[in-house]
């Protein structure tokens, strides 16, 4: 016998905005958003990044203004990237106290250090002339262990300049342990490490390489970043980073890797963040400009999806705008 009416009507709980709000399982909050920002040495006006409309390489002044806006909107964290005027083989400005990131960080820490969590990307690619994330051997390979010493020194410089969190993104083996030891040895036991634990060799980083002017001059990053084909390997990377002392872990990119976010979030008890990377930003902005997507809805939908997958914190270039939309 067939029922005259459907036995269950899930639509009842979708009928009105008030009902949908009441039963929503996932919410995105401004406090959980982290804004990545770029500061460039030697420019006197902010420069918009061609492949990331609305995102700028900042001067020290415009950085401060934009950071204040982000904080005013309720954004919870800022991730700082530096673009030095001059680069060399060893990425000297990464650990120079007068390097652009350290200078910018000291200013931000003085102005906003109590109101927002200041984080720094800890890598060499923004600072090396060859654009790789580490030091090179004579034959042009990335030298893992020699690179660790550079990361350790950069971590101490960033901590001294006021970073509350350092975020190693170079995918060298042992990087978290080396950085933790260096920070502790220099007395920075309170500085936390957010490990870019599962970072894939992704084409979605394309526009970032314009933003940070760090496209590798030869080869690619596949010998250190993860193969997009692997999921279980991400869990191993996360385990290793936690064993070495990571306080938080990140999955990157986000949207194409939400399965990884979900698996990592289930596996660990530390905060898990995910990075909505430059290519994701650029795709949506480009489609919206053509009238092919509803920009704001897509932004909020993707952020909701990150949270639904299990991300606690989300790094996004839309952080300030999204925080305002969520108010
Ligand atoms: C490395 C770094 C990269 C990004 C963040 N940190 C580039 C890379 O690994 O090639 C990419 C961020 C983005 O695409 O938005 N320092």
From TrEMBL:
GO terms for molecular function: porphobilinogen synthase activity. It catalyses: 2 5-aminolevulinate = porphobilinogen + 2 H2O + H(+). Its EC number is 4.2.1.24. Pathway: Porphyrin-containing compound metabolism; protoporphyrin-IX biosynthesis; coproporphyrinogen-III from 5-aminolevulinate: step 1/4. It is an enzyme of class 4 (lyase). Keywords: Heme biosynthesis, Lyase, Porphyrin biosynthesis. Catalyzes an early step in the biosynthesis of tetrapyrroles. Binds two molecules of 5-aminolevulinate per subunit, each at a distinct site, and catalyzes their condensation to form porphobilinogen. Belongs to the ALAD family. This is Delta-aminolevulinic acid dehydratase. It comes from Thermobifida alba. The gene is hemB.
